Write a sequence for this structure.
């Protein structure tokens, strides 16, 4: 017991939880995880497997007690950096996709590579009525701030 | 021995006091949790809210577990209480879908639940552990009868699509064989003096003795086919009566098979504090609690009310809302104080004049994706053919879980399974599908475990929490970093507004988080109201 005390003390004062906490706190964690990941999926596939869950298949968004923004014709998409930063870091209730999963983290965040972020940004900016040039490069995404 | 155990306790107490002094109460609770002394629900019995100022009023936003806990207690304490609820029903995520229910998700797809009478699925929470004492207390107070929820069923399956030719294995066999082989290795390593540096000679003997019992090892400390081992993993032919009575022991899997299949990942789910026996479920579905709360509160709750603005001034709080059955209309509700339990996914989009720290906290919590699929079958083949009564099968297929009904055992007629319970990427993918495709996929995957699916499937419903109009997600996801930066700011009272809900708790995604956060919030709000009331 004793060797742990200083570490817990520092962690608590700094407000840092001990490893494993997040795994304990959630509603179901059997430890059994599905086999397939997002792999090397490209922009269109990522949109279809991930983004459209909220933003809808036609990128029209939706309205309930709150809303999911419509991506088709969103004037903010003139800035590719705006779009890429949203994908990397999330915003409000939207999760970020630039963060790797921590050990034991549940539910594990979905991680997209810089190339995939560039690809999905290009896809959204050139579809659903958006007419921007799909020319964002992975290196450009890599240069943006990423989540810790 | 005695001194060894006593002294860390004393040090622990001193330590906690120090943490409390230097870092405040929340840090202390956090440290206590890490030390394992406050891991239980902080529910401390019925809340005492004596001395409510005469005529004081509280507006509560949201009629889920947090909002209704707050409304129930504040009303009983003498406050004038009004609740605004987006849905046309009470409960929020405490919810059961039953035959005849209709559910329209974001995007417009409407599902009609075609389950037979008394059959249901809980799209949200489905179990209450014995130490969630706040939830158990309200079930008792509201007269909601409980029955046992089965988490671990030794005859349910652990399934890997990549091991044993995709054939599901009984939990009983995986656990016994994993335990047996590990015990054998450790016992033999001990005998070969591998542990001499860490375990005393005497304790080595005790260790070996315990491993023999834990793993059912034979006289050579080997785990092998035997009647004794079959008493754990099951028999090739069960013992019976009469002339056909003689049992035949079963053959354990080899160590390599046990390890490589990785089914051991599924052994410990029931060891989690939140998933240990005794667990409960309300008779008739989890939604019975929300329904009972709703009946109890009656006209206190105004349904179909979509909050669009929250504004506080020095004298009170005004919420502007739209009646969802009359879009475009604007109405207001006003009270001295406000307990806001709206999920952060929604609240982050509602204008509300709180200070920068709370506003930042509201915007710092992403919402998780989760899916549940309920499947009705023409008969209870999992009981009739597979002898599985309640509990959960875990699989590495995208459906992740198959949950068997923990009620109505051996009844004739149809039955409903939880055909999928998914988090993470797979949940996002299922969310991206139309409801009928989610159901179709769940049947397709599930039939790899229960081939009877194809023949017996009747109908199904699928709830994707990111498509839920009232939550836009399943639950708030905190990281260590966002907790450190924002959690206290989220929970502090901001002038006349305090937040509550699972998102304002350390039991994220559990109803107990909602209940305990509500009790904590109204306790503090009450103190403030009493102090102000005295001044006025």
């Amino acid at each position: 017991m004793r060797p742990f005390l200083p570490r817990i003390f520092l962690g608590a004062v700094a407000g840092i939880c001990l490893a494993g906490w997040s795994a304990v706190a959630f509603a179901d964690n059997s430890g059994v995880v599905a086999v397939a990941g997002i792999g090397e999926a490209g922009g269109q596939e990522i949109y279809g497997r991930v983004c459209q869950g909220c933003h809808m298949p036609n990128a029209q968004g939706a309205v309930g007690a709150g809303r999911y923004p419509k991506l088709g014709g969103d004037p903010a998409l003139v800035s590719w950096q705006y779009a890429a930063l949203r994908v990397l870091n999330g915003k409000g209730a939207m999760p970020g996709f630039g963060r790797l999963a921590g050990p034991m983290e549940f539910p594990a965040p979905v991680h997209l590579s810089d190339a995939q972020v560039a690809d999905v940004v290009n896809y959204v900016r050139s579809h659903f009525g958006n007419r921007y040039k799909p020319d964002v490069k992975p290196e450009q995404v890599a240069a943006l701030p990423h989540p810790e | 021995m005695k001194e060894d155990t006593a002294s860390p306790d004393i040090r622990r107490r001193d330590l906690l006091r120090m943490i409390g002094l230097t870092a405040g109460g929340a840090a202390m609770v956090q440290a206590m949790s890490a030390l394992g002394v406050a891991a239980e629900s902080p529910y401390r019995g019925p809340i005492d809210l004596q001395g409510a100022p005469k005529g004081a009023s509280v507006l509560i936003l949201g009629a889920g577990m947090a909002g209704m806990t707050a409304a129930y207690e504040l009303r009983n304490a003498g406050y004038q209480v009004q609740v605004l609820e987006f849905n046309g029903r009470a409960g929020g995520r405490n919810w059961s879908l039953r035959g005849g229910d209709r559910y329209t998700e974001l995007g417009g797809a409407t599902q009609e639940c075609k389950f037979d009478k008394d059959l249901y699925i809980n799209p949200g929470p489905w179990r209450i552990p014995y130490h969630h004492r706040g939830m158990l207390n309200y079930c008792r107070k509201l007269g909601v009868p409980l029955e046992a929820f089965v988490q671990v069923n030794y005859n349910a399956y652990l399934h890997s699509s990549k091991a044993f030719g995709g054939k599901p294995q009984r939990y009983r066999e995986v656990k016994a064989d994993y335990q047996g082989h590990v015990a054998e290795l450790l016992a033999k390593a001990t005998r070969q003096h591998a542990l001499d540096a860490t375990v005393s000679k005497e304790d080595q003997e005790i260790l070996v003795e315990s491993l023999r019992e834990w793993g059912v090892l034979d006289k050579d400390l080997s785990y092998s086919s035997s009647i004794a081992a079959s008493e754990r993993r099951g028999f090739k032919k069960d013992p019976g009566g009469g002339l056909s009575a003689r049992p035949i022991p079963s053959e354990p899997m080899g160590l390599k098979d046990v390890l490589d299949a990785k089914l051991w990942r599924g052994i410990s789910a029931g060891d989690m504090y939140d998933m240990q026996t005794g667990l409960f479920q309300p008779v008739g579905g989890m939604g019975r609690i929300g329904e009972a709360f709703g009946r109890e509160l009656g006209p206190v709750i105004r349904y179909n009310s979509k909050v669009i603005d929250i504004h506080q001034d020095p004298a009170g709080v005004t919420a502007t809302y739209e009646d969802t059955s009359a879009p475009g209309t604007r109405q207001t509700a006003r009270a001295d104080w406000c307990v806001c339990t709206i999920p952060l996914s929604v609240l982050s989009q509602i204008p509300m004049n709180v200070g920068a720290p709370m506003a930042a906290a509201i915007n710092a919590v992403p919402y998780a994706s989760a899916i549940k699929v309920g499947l009705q079958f023409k008969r209870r083949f999992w009981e009739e053919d597979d002898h599985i009564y309640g509990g959960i099968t875990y699989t590495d297929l995208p459906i992740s879980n198959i949950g068997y009904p923990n009620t109505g055992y051996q009844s004739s007629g149809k039955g409903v399974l939880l055909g999928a319970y998914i988090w993470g990427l797979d949940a996002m993918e299922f969310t991206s599908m139309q409801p009928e495709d989610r159901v179709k996929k769940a049947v397709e995957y599930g039939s790899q475990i229960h081939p009877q699916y194809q023949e017996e499937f009747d109908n199904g419903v699928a709830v994707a929490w990111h498509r839920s109009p009232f939550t836009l997600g399943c639950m708030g996801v905190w990281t260590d970093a966002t907790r450190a930066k924002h959690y206290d700011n989220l929970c502090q009272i901001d002038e006349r507004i305090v937040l509550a809900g699972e998102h304002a708790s350390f039991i994220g995604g559990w109803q107990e988080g909602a209940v305990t956060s509500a009790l904590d919030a109204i306790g503090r709000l009450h103190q403030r109201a009493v102090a102000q009331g005295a001044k006025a």
Helices of chain A lie at 5-13, 21-25, 43-55, 80-89, 114-125, 138-142. Chain A has a mean pLDDT of 80.
